[in-house]
């Protein structure tokens, strides 16, 4: 009897482990008979059912949208869920062209209160936003109706966004709010330069976000960093077309939180209107801070304003320009920034007269002006930067302290 048990128990354990592994790897294919999704049709209900099943599973699940083009009206996939979920998009999800057919809020696809999400598969989220851009008057009408964001992540934790594409969003492509420990790798944003208000990746009130090996072409900031962002690392990102990589705008609303620990490294910007910048509104309703912000090893190719601090940011003239910004900027470095620019003012540090910038460093700056509007130059106000290995035209001589 003892020998029989000895032989049977290992087999039982093996079968149990095999069964568990099979359960963990079982795919919830939205085109299966259970969910009924079909290429060319609306699979909103099929995806919602698959999410409900995955979210209720006590073992990790995989939702699969196979290759093909699928219509998707939109929804927000809500947690918390009982185990990790991989959402594998191999094909293309298309939003309705007409925004009135989308959800009532401003989100096409959302993930809310989810821990352990992996969004992968090499597929495309196509917002079909061209018609919305044509009808967008937000550049002159601040009461304009908000368009739909392609992907909104709210309270997403311990998650990954890998090797997928956001295409032609009606509004921002990606918005992360109140997220923690999220990796974005191999991500692509694809939209033309005329796509208004289509920030590639916007981050706000989030901690521990890591963006690597990502390509962004759009009609607004490639990456915009809002209030409350901490411990953000951006590495090996290519940007263009677009408005560059921006901290802010900050200092417009009274409830804003400080920004700190921002590292932008080894990025290339091509044919963008700006390079790397920090922008804050004048006449801020309360004091705030933006600190420990570092730009390093950045290549500029035909960029308008490569290096910019603008504490008089005031689009649409909706501010009191004569009242200083109350956002204190400190511990900022621009290191090893090289390439070409299309504006003769290659370096502009316009800090607040009420709260001058502190501990700003310019090191190894080598920029060439490709235009014919005069010699390349730099402009500084309310800042005394430390200068290391920067040619005189770019050395921000006004108020600068050479090192």
From TrEMBL:
Transmembrane segments: none annotated. SUPFAM superfamilies: Pectin lyase-like. Residues 1-23 form the signal peptide. GO terms for biological process: carbohydrate metabolic process; cell wall organization. InterPro entries: Glyco_hydro_28 (IPR000743), PbH1 (IPR006626), Pectin_lyas_fold (IPR012334), Pectin_lyase_fold/virulence (IPR011050). GO terms for molecular function: polygalacturonase activity. Keywords: Cell wall, Cell wall biogenesis/degradation, Glycosidase, Hydrolase, Secreted, Signal. It is found in: Secreted, Cell wall. The active site is at 243. Its main location: secreted. Coiled coil: none annotated. PANTHER family: PTHR31375. Belongs to the glycosyl hydrolase 28 family. This is Exopolygalacturonase-like.
């Amino acid at each position: 009897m003892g020998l029989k048990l000895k032989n049977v128990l290992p087999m039982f354990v093996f079968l149990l482990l095999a069964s568990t592994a099979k359960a963990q790897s079982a795919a919830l294919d939205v085109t299966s008979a259970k969910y009924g999704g079909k290429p060319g049709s609306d699979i909103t209900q099929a995806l919602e059912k698959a999410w409900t099943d995955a979210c209720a599973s006590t073992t990790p699940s995989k939702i699969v949208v196979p290759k093909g083009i699928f219509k998707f009206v939109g929804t927000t996939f809500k947690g918390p869920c009982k185990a990790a979920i991989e959402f594998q998009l191999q094909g293309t999800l298309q939003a309705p062209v007409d925004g009135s057919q989308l959800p009532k809020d401003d989100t096409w696809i959302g993930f809310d209160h989810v821990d352990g999400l992996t969004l992968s598969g090499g597929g495309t989220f196509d917002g079909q936003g061209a018609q919305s851009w044509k009808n967008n008057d937000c550049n002159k009408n601040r009461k304009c109706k908000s368009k739909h964001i392609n992907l909104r992540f709210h309270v997403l934790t311990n998650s990954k966004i890998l090797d997928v594409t956001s295409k032609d969003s009606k509004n921002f492509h990606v918005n992360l709010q109140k997220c923690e420990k999220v990796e974005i790798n191999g991500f692509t944003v694809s939209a033309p330069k005329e796509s208004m208000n289509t920030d590639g990746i916007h981050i706000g009130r989030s901690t521990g976000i890591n963006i690597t090996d990502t390509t962004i072409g759009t009609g607004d900031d490639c990456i915009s960093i809002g209030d409350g962002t901490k411990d953000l690392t951006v590495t090996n990102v290519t940007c263009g077309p677009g408005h560059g990589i921006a901290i802010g705008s900050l200092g417009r609303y009274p409830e804003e939180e400080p920004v700190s620990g921002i590292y932008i490294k080894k990025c290339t910007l091509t044919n963008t209107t700006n390079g790397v910048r920090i922008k804050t509104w004048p006449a801020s309703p309360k004091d705030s801070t933006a600190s420990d912000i570092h730009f390093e090893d950045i290549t500029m190719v035909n960029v308008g304003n490569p290096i910019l601090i603008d504490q008089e940011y005031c689009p649409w003239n909706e501010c009191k320009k004569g009242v200083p910004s109350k956002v204190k900027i400190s511990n900022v470095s621009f290191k090893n920034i090289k390439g070409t620019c299309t504006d003769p003012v290659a370096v502009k540090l316009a800090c607040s007269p009420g709260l001058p910038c502190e501990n700003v460093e310019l090191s190894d700056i080598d920029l060439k002006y490709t235009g014919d509007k005069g010699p390349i130059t730099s402009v500084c106000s309310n800042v005394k930067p430390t200068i290391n290995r920067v040619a005189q035209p770019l050395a921000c001589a006004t108020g600068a302290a050479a090192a």
